[in-house]
Amino acid sequence: MVGSSSVGGLGLIYPQALSRTVRGAVKPPRDPGFGALRRAARAAIVIPPVFAFADVLLGEPESLIFVMFGCFSLLVISDFGGLRRPRALAYLSATVAGAALVALGTFASSSAWLAVAMMFAVGFAISFSRVFGGYVAAANTGMLLAFVIAVTIPAPAAVIPLRVGGWAIAGLVSTLAAVALWPRFERITMHHQTAGALVAIADLVQGLGAGSNDLKQLENNAAQAVEAARQGFIDLARRPTATPRRDRAFAELLIEIERILEIIERPFNLERPTVRPGIPETDQLVAAVVAALRSSAGVLKGGAPPDVDAIESARQKHRAALDRWASEQLRAGRPTEEVLDGLDFDDTVRVVSYVALLLGRNAVIAAGGRPDLRDTAVHVMRTLQAHLESPSTVLQGSLRVAIGLALAVWVARAFDLSHAFWVVLGTIQVLRSNALSTGRTVIQAVVGNAIGVVVGGLFAVIAGNHPALMWTAFPIAVFFAAYAATTIGFMASQAAFTINLIIVFNLISPAGWQVGLVRLEDLLVGTVISLVVGLLLWPSGARREFGRAVASAYLALIGYLDRGFDRVLGFEPLSSSADSEQQVVVRVRDRVDAAFDTLMTDRTGGSFDRETAAFLLSATNHMTLAGDLLNVIAGPMGYRGGSCADGALEVREQAHTVLAEYRRLADRLSLAPSSQSESQVSLAALRQAALKCLRRWQTNPELGRSAMAVVMAAEWVQYVSRLEGDLEEAVGTASDAARKPWWR
Question: What is the per-residue pLDDT across 58-101, written as a single tens digit (0 to 9) for each?
């Protein structure tokens, strides 16, 4: 409650705990679960025989190149994860989509200008599709590669069946290999670890409700189980293992598990005397929460889903019982300070119950519950609307990719460059979200490819007249090209990939070491194009755009919270506008999520790191939940503070104070001048406002719901105030990073 760590009994953790997952995270291992080793071995075993089959039996160069790059695109670049069935469906879907792109690219290749126009359109569409995450995002580069190869090698429409056939062979073989050869089912392990954490959390909640003397030991056990689940998530290979909806639900599930642990470790009566209401409805609520947590653990192992409706029913009964307890205690003459502390004690259980309700729903989705098709369609339309509006880092990034690739196609076709697709491929490989990252990647690519040309060229000179040596080296080159991509580094992967290409093209048509030189020349052209595009199109990149996106989210949330407080305190009538306000917030948050994803691919390091960005992002989630629950308090729950006008007015003034501070933070993030000076919320004034209304309730039984409305609103003001205080340093770091010129 006011003066303690209470936040309205609505289930949020402190900013220090918000970043537990990020700030306490260890660096993931270089090759978690030997995922890269499995992928590289799979590619080395599969690609050479398939290439040999296509070479000997088909004998068509038009098919050979699509067999080779198709296998590499699907088995190495995309490398879908998950259980066998969704994994197979992902590979087959990518095969069909890639075949369509190969056909479209071949058709467009007959005209230089048509090729450029189609490259722009397809490049934008594929790049933009990553907003849907999951398998769609994983397939992004592989699908671009399918179209690039087809559109940059001019051919008549008559060869479309040969090209599509080569891609189809690659897709079918890749699907079988991914399902049969050393698949890593990391999701099963992750589910079992998470189920163990849920059982430990259930034991902890049960101990909290019973007032167990072993609560500290239960906390330690739960903390260890949660850490194991979190480490399992960190150790995941960097690839999707299910649909985007399931991946998001599982990520949220882990966050909610940590929320419950943090709430119990920092109870809402931590700084106040312990006063237990001792009502039976508390035990009933605890029992419903424990049952739901255990069922959530069970559903991750294939069991029945949790009964989340039972939690909501128990919550409603507990809310009514808690109000009755406060009324009885006040009528009996108990000091209002003790009544406030008693409400504070049971708020811990209420918070846990709310998070458990969300957790149970996410557990069902993460375990594979069927989505509502209408909800899915709404989500798709909302996502498209959010990211087609400016400013959007996804929109900017997609335009940057589309323009860069279209320019590369034009240069390659206009100057009739040999192996033109290497020019476009070079552009894909080095183009990043800002000019600095692009420049660094250009240097790494050029150096790496130069090393590859030297090593591969020497080998071509030695083994050029010995096909057996070439075929022997082929699987070794494939292995290192696949393995280096995610474990050694970009420069090493470029060297290995160039060596692999020299071997492949010498197997198709002996050309010696010169093919490596052509590769390096074309790569240089592609990297120059990327550098020019990076300099001209949003060169500051994701650092500045992320700050602006977070600032926009804060501004939208300020209005949402302001109206939520006014509704609870009785200064604004209830209306349906809360739903439209929520949709605005959701769209803005979608753009923040995309800006965060883009920032994480920058690899720029520096002061604006992942931890700072994740903390700023997490704050928007908690502010959103605060606004959502304020509207629930005023609407369905029916708490309105109008009958205790002076207490409501004082809380409202403090709410305006803290929201003004958020506006100042938003100005700093967007690099806009701010005329506001720093101000501070008075916790003493908030507590006195709550106590004042409780005293009036003590003398007038009709004022109960108004008094509780003021109490809960005061709690939320305190929470958002403490969150704002902890955001100061992170906002300062982000704004300093955004002010840096693009070359730093």
Answer: 767 778 889 888 888 888 888 777 778 888 898 999 999 999 99
Report CA torsion sign: 622, 343, 203, 206.
Answer: negative
CA distance 731 to 744: 19
Angle of CA points 59, 64, 69, to nearest 5°: 170
Residue 310 φ/ψ, nearest 5 degrees:
-65, -35
Q: Which residue has the tokens 């335009």?
A: 399
Contact (Cβ atoms closer than 8 angstroms) between residue 414 and residue 130: no
CA 317, CA 305: separation in Å to the nearest integer? 23
Q: In this structure, how many other beta carbons lie within 10 angstroms of the beta carbon of residue 680?
A: 12
Q: How confident is the model at residue 16 (pLDDT cuts 50, 70, 90)?
A: very low
Q: How many residues are listed for the chain in this entry?
A: 744
pLDDT tens per residue across span 704-731:
899 999 988 988 888 788 778 778 888 8
pTM of the model: 0.66
Rounded CA-CA distance 640/325 in Å is: 19
CA dihedral 295, 299, 303, 309 (to 10 degrees): 50
Distance (Å, whole) CA 384 – CA 147: 23
Angle at 267 between CA 265 and CA 270, to 5 degrees: 110
What is the per-residue pLDDT across 529-568, written as a single tens digit (0 to 9) for each?
777 776 666 555 566 777 888 888 899 999 999 999 999 9
Tell me the C-alpha distance between 614 and 689, whole Å: 35
**Mind spelling out the 3-state secondary structure of 308-321?**
HHHHHHHHHHHHHH
Question: How far apart are the C-alpha atoms of 349 and 263, rounded to whole Å?
Answer: 9
Cα four-point dihedral sign 240, 379, 360, 626: positive
330, 694 contact by CB (below 8 A): yes
The HSE-up count of residue 487 (CA atoms within 13 Å, CB side) is 21
Closest among 742, 741, 723 to 731, alpha carbons compared: 723
Residue 241 has pLDDT above 60, yes or no: no
- Tokens standing for residue 246: 């399931």
Alpha helices (H) in 332-466, listed in sequence order: 336-366, 373-388, 393-414, 420-430, 435-463
- The number of C-alpha atoms within 13 Å of 265 and in the hemisphere containing its C-beta is 19
How distant is the alpha carbon of residue 161 from its chain centre? 39
